[in-house]
Design a protein that fits this description.
The chain contains two helices and twelve strands; from the N terminus they run H-E-E-E-E-E-E-E-E-E-E-E-E-H. By secondary structure, the chain is an alpha+beta fold. The strands form two sheets. Strands 1, 2, 3, 4, 9, 10, 11 and 12 form an eight-stranded antiparallel beta sheet that branches. A four-stranded antiparallel beta sheet has the order 7-6-5-8, with no helix packed on it. The two termini are 23 Å apart. The N terminus and C terminus are likely disordered.
Amino acid sequence: MSGNTGTQGGRGRLGSVLSGLAVAVGCLLFLGGFVGGALFYQPYTVPTDSMTPTIDDGSKILAQRIDGDDVRRGDVVVFKDPLWGDSPMVKRVAGVGGDTVACCDRDGRLTVDGKAVVEPYLTPGMGGRTVASDKEFSVTVPQGSLFLLGDDRHTSLDSRTHLEEAGQGSVPRSTVVGRVDAVVWPANGLLEPPTGFADLPGGTSRPGPFEALFTAIVAGCVLILAGAAYGPVANLLTRRSAGARPGKRERVGA
């Protein structure tokens, strides 16, 4: 009897230690994920439908806090330029300083330095034909600037709207306040990589730490719940086991 009690007590103590450790590690992961998210990301609400179908009007997004010098072609960025308005805006980078951005080639595609860019997020316009812009243009982007387009080329008020202004619609890199990594509401998750720009010099940006931080938060929740559930589950199993033993003794005695 005493040997069984010691074994059960040892197992109980080990289980308690492991459950406490699971809760402690879970708390670290959970809080670390949220703290990391606050440090790396800034939430925004998209004010218009100019980025549909990639990002809908009213969507909640997370933009990684980056310097404008880190922006590459194809990135979806949040920027604030007083010439475009007082509120933050969301557009896709079509060209960087020194690029010649033009539209359209004979297949209706955007070109950067003469190279056609495949943009799968574009939707057909009138007549069912998909074109990168219903307005033809050719612009050489000033150094230190970005040429920005919305994914909905039929309604977006973007660099094409400002072609007659200084810089031909380009905005300084310094106006960028973040690069959009994910849409959190509705929960669309990470943005698709801009593969159409991948073959251009410099390539495309790598995703930020959103996925790692989200995984840490989920793993933390699982560990906290598992650790907290150990005590009640162990007690329930112990009571059931103790309740079954007297019944066996009565049958044996009979």
